[in-house]
């Protein structure tokens, strides 16, 4: 059974800092990994999707890396802003049988102090 | 492009009552998912549909939860009877097909008292 762990559970940093969020998964037989953002009272927004053949993906100030062999991914946020405050979730899909629902970590609650 | 629509946004019921949630996926999306997110946890998949067929419902508590997707478009998720531990946000998501990026609705927050 796939398990996803995210560290740290919460993080509070001053505006402008670069930061790293960590995600680990137990079953390396994944075909992609996604990072999501969740704002209070809202649904999930997909930030980055990394295919298993890729090692990283970038979108603006966000960079996600994937190391399948070690079962780890990191989300790097450069020059953090107060608007980045949210919960960040890592997720990997089921594999096989046509089912591809996602298994999520518990998330990292991020606060960027102005 | 319209997103995934869910209703109601909020619902408060007493334990042992029944409740239903509705989801309208993005037009043309064949795959639809229901997730349960308990406070402080990540979302947990309850059921996945491909068109109007169930692909995976292994984590759906079938003694009290049911879901259907008649005509392969809209879907409803029902809980009967509700328990206190069912208090959560119920998220619906859709994708154009299995294996492609899924888009999430804003969710229905259920409180069971």
Would you give an account of this structure?
Chain A has 114 residues and is an all-beta fold. Chain A has no helices and 11 strands. In chain A, strands 2, 4, 5, 9, 10 and 11 form a 6-stranded mixed β-sheet that branches. In chain A, strands 1-3-8-7-6 form a 5-stranded antiparallel β-sheet, with no helix packed on it. In chain A, a hairpin with a 2-residue loop joins β6 and β7. The termini of chain A are far apart. The model of chain A has no long low-confidence stretch (mean pLDDT 93). Chain B is mainly beta and 113 residues long. In chain B, 0% of the residues lie in helices and 49% in strands. Chain B has no helices and 11 strands. Chain B has strands at 5-7, 10-13, 19-24, 31-37, 44-50, 53-56, 65-68, 75-79, 88-95, 103-104, 108-112. In chain B, the strands form 2 sheets. In chain B, strands 2, 4, 5, 6, 9, 10 and 11 form a 7-stranded mixed β-sheet that branches. Chain B is globular and about 35 Å long. Chain B starts with a strand and ends with a strand. The chains are: A mainly beta (114), B mainly beta (113). At the A-B interface, β5, β9 and β10 of A face β4, β5 and β10 of B.
Task: Give the helix level of chain B as a range of percent.
Answer: under 10%
Largest interface: A-B, 25 and 26 residues
Tell me, rounded to a whole number, the average pLDDT of chain B: 94
Low-confidence stretches of chain A: none
Distance between the termini of chain A: 41 Å
Low-confidence stretches of chain B: none
| Gross morphology of chain B | globular
Number of helices of chain B: 0
Helix content of chain A: under 10%
Mean pLDDT of chain A: 93
Structural class of chain B: mainly beta
The DSSP helix count of chain A reads 0
* Major sheet description of chain B: 7 strands, mixed
